Amino acid sequence: MxxxxxxxxxxxxxxxxxxxxxxxxxxxxxRFKADLHTCVECIQDPKRLKDNIIELYKCYVQPSDMxxxxxxxxxxxxxxxxxxxxxxKMITTMKKQISRDANDFQANNTxxxxxxxxxxxxxxxxxxxxxxxxxxxxxxxx
Length: 142
Prior knowledge:
Elements: H1 7-41, H2 46-60, H3 63-141
């Protein structure tokens, strides 16, 4: 025997309540569809269409829906501002890193350029010395 407070009986009660809510929503949707079709009939007359849409809004939108929407909007705004701050911090960090990398790259290039100049100077000095030694050798052989 199943007691009234057992989980099975409570689940059955919730299912009955859920079924009732589903039926209520089905009826509400059917009424809304019918009212919407009535609105669409006056699509050629903008003033009547506007009035019918306003009536639909008054009939189907509850003030509690608006409060919930405002709460969701503030949550979304808070989340958006949090994400914006996070992305701005990331951008700042990346800009600093790029700047640091560019400075390192410039310093490395300058160092290599100086080494290149020193090596070219040494090569030219060695060529000059080789030319001098060959000239001396040539003079010595004569």
